Amino acid sequence: MSYPVPTHSTPLGCLVGFVALFPAVISVLGWYGLYLWSQLPTKAQVIDKNFWALLAAAVLGPPLAVILMKVAKRILKATDFRGYNPSDSREPTIKF
Predict the structure, then answer these.
(1) What is the 3-state secondary structure (H, E, C) of the chain?
(2) d(CA 53, CA 75)
C-alpha cells in the first residue's frame, strides 16, 4: 500500500486542526491573565473591559477549540487517500 506524500497532499482537516490551536492558546493566556489578576491586592482588582476580555477568552476558548478539533477529526476521517497517486499530473496537488 502506497501512502500519499505529505508535500503533495494537505487535508483540510489538518488546516482546521491547526486553526483550533489559536483559541486553545488564547484560552491559556486568558486563564493565566485571570490568575495574575487574582494575585493582585484586593483594591487593585478592577473589573473593567480587560477583565471581561480575559474571562471571555478563558471561558470561550476551550469549547471553540474542542469544536474545531472535532470538525477536523471528522474531515480527516472522511478524506479518502486510497488510490491517490501524488506523481500523477491529473490528480489535484491538494486533496480536500
Answers:
(1) CCCCCCCCCCCHHHHHHHHHHHHHHHHHHHHHHHHHHHCCCHHHCCCCHHHHHHHHHHHHHHHHHHHHHHHHHHHHHHCCCCCCCCCCCCCCCCCC
(2) 31
Q: What is this structure's pTM?
A: 0.69
Distance CA 93, CA 86 (A): 7
Cell triple for 68? 474545531
Low-confidence ranges of the chain (pLDDT < 50): 7-9
